[in-house]
Amino acid sequence: MSSEAPKRVAVVGGGILGVSTAVHLLREGGSVILLTEGRLASEASGRSLSWLNSAGERSTPYHQLRLAGVERYRTLFAADPSREWLQFDGGVMWNAVGHGEETSARHAYEKSIGYDSKLLAPEEIGRIVPGVDSSSVPENAIFNGGEGWVSLPHLLEHLMEEFHELGGELVLNAGKVSVLSSEGRATGVVLPSGETYDADAVLVACGAATPSVVAPLGVEIPNGSPVSMLVITKPVEHSLESVLNTPRAAVRPNPGSTLALDHDWYKEHITEYSDGTFGIPDEVVQELADEASKLIAGNPELKPASWKIGYKPIPGDGEPVLGELDAVSGCFVAFTHSGATLALIVGELLAGEILTGDKHPMLATFRPGRFSQGFSRS
Ligand SMILES: Cc1cc2nc3c(=O)[nH]c(=O)nc-3n(C[C@H](O)[C@H](O)[C@H](O)COP(=O)(O)OP(=O)(O)OC[C@H]3O[C@@H](n4cnc5c(N)ncnc54)[C@H](O)[C@@H]3O)c2cc1C
């Protein structure tokens, strides 16, 4: 940092993007106040499959950012491979019966860009990937050996230890915080109670609520966030190590011999109530658990222990929205799909931008200014 006094940054949102950026800011000498509506990890970061990957096809800058994201997790993993909440045992995907050609085409694309991808026959999956019932694999499957998974609530707890050690200030149960600005520059934040906090810069990392938090500033960010659910099973004996993405269930190991499950086929069974909460019939949750059981060697009975439903943050055009607002200098946003994969790298790059003012080239195509009609500063 060039200035004498540490830059004071208000980070709004206690999900993984807010917490990661807050810790990176503190590491670089910033002064941070982190404010969140309720408790930490109360939204998407508390109910995420958190498969760490850049599988499939997407824009080159997004792929590169995700690869850097996975690399940061590998560094964290290497520091202590025994952590039960961060593991790198690869990912497996397959399509429905009769769609083997799509799987082959995806593999060919992944190979063409140097992504670690192996196309395997069902019997090879059974041999190479522990814990999978190979009879559930149709004609072929892809094994991406470089992928991993993380439990975000555990990562968040890990990062918060450092946050407190480095002197970060935390405000829980703040309610819906708003950004204050004057003459086109962010000046701090205000709580529904009327309490205000001055800041040199503000980061809005409010997940699916990010577009509505910046809207009063005259900034439009299209929101494509769907409703989604994550189920955690009761403890079960299994030897699954990889993440599975299959036509009827996505499954990953989870601390405490449990499994984390998600998918989207049951979306129409989810009801949103007027108080903002969600419901789904128990039978549908059990059906997802039954689908997951078919994928696991020995087909153990899976019993849902908890399930959480809410919005999965996804910008309207599917690409991350990261960086400073054109309309309000000093106000930054972090709003993205795959925020688990991106959390560490985005926190690092945004913290650098907030403290130094230097725009990082890897974020060039993700600026919020792309949605505005006028010119963009980046
Ligand atoms: C079911 C599911 C599966 C997923 N699978 C994957 C995956 O496999 N791989 C992957 O990389 N990513 C995955 N994701 C995405 C990833 O989990 C999210 O991108 C990430 O957790 C988002 O973190 P966040 O910090 O942006 O938002 P959140 O975790 O939603 O946190 C936002 C926080 O801001 C707070 N807030 C909102 N408005 C305000 C306000 N006005 N004032 C104060 N606080 C406010 C909220 O209370 C919340 O605590 C998945 C997500 C879901 C839900």
Summarize this structure as a short list of keywords or feature phrases.
single chain; 378 residues; alpha+beta; Alpha-Beta Plaits; 8 helices; 22 strands; globular; binds flavin-adenine dinucleotide
Describe the structure.
This protein is of the alpha+beta class. The protein has three domains: 8-46 and 153-224 and 316-371, FAD/NAD(P)-binding domain (3-Layer(bba) Sandwich), CATH 3.50.50.60; 91-145, no CATH class; 226-311, Alpha-Beta Plaits (2-Layer Sandwich), CATH 3.30.70. Helices cover 27% and strands 24% of the residues. It contains eight helices and 22 strands. Helix 1 (16-27) runs parallel beside helix 5. The chain is globular. Flavin-adenine dinucleotide binds next to helix 1, strand 14 and helix 8.
Can you summarize this structure?
This protein is of the alpha+beta class and 378 residues long.
